[in-house]
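Sequence design from tokenized structure. All designs in this work follow the same two-part layout: the structure record, then the generated sequence. An example of the structure record is given first.
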């Protein structure tokens, strides 16, 4: 799978499809929230997010995709709906890859939109 496809799947919430593309020393910095270190922490967090995605209605969209030799940037948004809430999130994810097309780091900016 190409880097751009891996990044798009992740940004579209299809986390269960790409865990084999995580480097063992992956780092995920969710700006203003938390930093995850290593495949174990990232995988566990992805499992929790995926459970949440299954509990609400999710709409993901990609506005722009940018790619350089080892970096993919995805600009998009998500809408999460439940019985009592509707949340809009503007997001930008910056993915860094190694030579084996495995994600070595992710930097995620998630901004709630009112």
């Amino acid at each position: 799978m190409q880097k751009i496809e891996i990044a798009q799947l992740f940004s579209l919430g299809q986390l269960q499809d790409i865990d084999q593309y995580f480097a063992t020393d992956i780092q995920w910095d969710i700006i203003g929230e938390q930093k995850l270190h290593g495949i174990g922490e990232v995988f566990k967090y992805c499992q929790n997010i995926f459970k949440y995605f299954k509990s609400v209605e999710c709409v993901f969209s990609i506005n722009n995709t940018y790619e350089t030799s080892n970096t993919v940037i995805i600009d998009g948004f998500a809408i999460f709906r439940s019985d009592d809430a509707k949340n809009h999130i503007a997001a930008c994810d910056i993915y860094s890859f190694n030579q084996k097309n495995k994600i070595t780091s992710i930097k995620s900016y998630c901004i709630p939109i009112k």
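The radius of gyration is 14 Å. We note this feature because it recurs in several other targets discussed in the main text.
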